[in-house]
Amino acid sequence: MEHIQTTNTLVRDTLTVFRRSMRLSVRNPAWVVIGLSQPVLYVLLFGPLLKPLASQLGTGNAYQLFVPGILVQLAMFGALFVGFGLIAEYRAGVIESQRVTPAPRLALLLGRVLRDVVVLVVQAIVLTLVAIPLGLRAPVLGVILTIIIVALLGFTFAAISYGLALTLKSEDAFAPLLNAFVIPALLLSGILLPMTLAPRWLQWVSDINPLKHVVDGVRAFFNGEYTSAAAWWGVGLTIAMAVLAAWFGARRFKKEAG
After folding, report:
1. CA distance 153 to 8
2. Residue 3's pLDDT band (boundaries 50, 70, 90)?
3. How far from 96 is each of 89, 90, 99, 100, CA to CA, in Å?
4. What is the Cα–Cα distance from 151 to 80, expressed in whole angstroms?
5. At the N or C end, where does the chain have fewer CB atoms within 10 A?
6. How confident is the model at residue 258 (pLDDT cuts 50, 70, 90)?
7. DSSP per residue over 68-114, as a string?
8. Domain locations in the chain?
């Protein structure tokens, strides 16, 4: 009975934090638009350059290869930088005021992350719809599974971002740390071009990057390869990263707002 009551409290307080966070996003939608503009520009301006290279890339449809990677990039950039908002909240005393509330510390994280995931899913749907008139052809089930993976990635990166923000509490330290991670992760994941085009030594290095396997997985879904090892290897790594990120983020919130 006590366990059920605790769960109900967690769900209720998570939704309370989520509604507050969504109201802030609705009042200031500029960041949502800005976050979507970059991947849309990639699709509009970079995608056509890949059409003549489709056969060399091992596909008959360049967008079927390119769009899944851009969706993963959207999850990265759309969620990794949410910590800047939390630093501003910390400076404004919001986190300090939450210390006196009885809300579970996990709810303070989950409510914010849920908002980020909802925004990210909407952006991913819009991006996919933009790519269809340009030539994207992908099975509906593959697109749905990919958006689920994108949502899990958004959860992962948002939780990490919030945890790091509470650890550093400074934009001057937070921004360089993110850039130091984002650039190598982006280049070694095969988001823009498959790593099969890279030299052998660079392929070996990219194999260490879990995002490379996630990108391979969502590309398999876009090709309708639902039972392939690449697809479910990517799913497994995404779930594992989400669990670790939730643990890290919740630990930082508990320590800071305890």
Report:
1. 26
2. low
3. 9, 7, 5, 8
4. 13
5. N
6. low
7. HHHHHHHHHHHHHTTHHHHHHHHHHTHHHHHTTS-S-HHHHHHHHHH
8. 2-256
